[in-house]
Amino acid sequence: MKDKKGSGTLVFGLLFLIPFMVFTLFLVESRLLYIEKNIVDDAVVAAGLAALSEFNPIDAAYGEYSLDPTEARETFDKYLKSNLKLDNSFYPLPGSIAISPVRVEDFRVYNPVDLPTECPSGTALKYTTIHAIVSLKVKRPALVGLFGNEVDIVVHRDVDNYYKLSE
């Protein structure tokens, strides 16, 4: 630097390196947030499938069954709390990816008498279905401070277990 040789290259290198590092952190962070959203999505689907199991097996044998919305909601809440490591008030326990209380924004049971219809988000429903929208906040894995310290995750799922036996 004393004779100024190569200082332009050094400045150019630093000007290139900083945006490149920020872009790389953005890519890594977006992938990590995508994985966390998939974890929440899997937890909602598993809780929805558990809630769908609260039916009369004789009705299911005939291909049509109805769910009691109260029992389905209790089962859904129980398994959602277990899957996301939450206490009874939906607050995160140690080891949970959530950093704030988890909110079940919408929970509806669509029975055969309600069908065919659409859920509030526009998904066509043909079979007994549980509609759930769950939201929570997670800690930002990188770029903390630049875009805030937390990220909102919202998962919308319409879960059914339609099956057809073929002969």
Instruction: Let me know the largest β-sheet.
Output: 3 strands, antiparallel
Mass-distribution shape: elongated
- Summing up helix and strand content along with how strands pair, one would put the structural category as alpha+beta
* Low-confidence runs: none
Q: Largest sheet, order of strands side by side?
A: 1-4-5
- Which whole number gives the mean pLDDT? 87
Order of helices and strands: HHHEEEEE
Report how far apart the termini are.
82 Å
**What share of the residues lie within helices?**
40-55%
The total count of strands amounts to 5
Bin the strand percentage: 15-25%
Over all CA atoms, what is the radius of gyration?
23 Å
SS summary, helix count: 3
Architecture overview:
The protein is an alpha+beta fold. The chain is 40% helix and 20% strand. It has 3 helices and 5 strands; from the N terminus they run αααβββββ. The protein has helices spanning 7-52, 57-61, 69-84, and strands at residues 103-110, 117-118, 124-125, 129-139, 150-160. A 3-stranded antiparallel β-sheet has the order 1-4-5, covered by helices on one side. Strands 2-3 form a two-stranded antiparallel sheet. A hairpin with a 5-residue loop joins strand 2 (117-118) and strand 3 (124-125). The mean pLDDT is 87.
Topology:
Layout: H1 7-52, H2 57-61, H3 69-84, E1 103-110, E2 117-118, E3 124-125, E4 129-139, E5 150-160
Antiparallel strand pairs: 1-4, 2-3, 4-5
Task: Considering the chains and any ligands shown, give keywords for the structure.
elongated, two-stranded antiparallel sheet, 20% strand, 167 residues
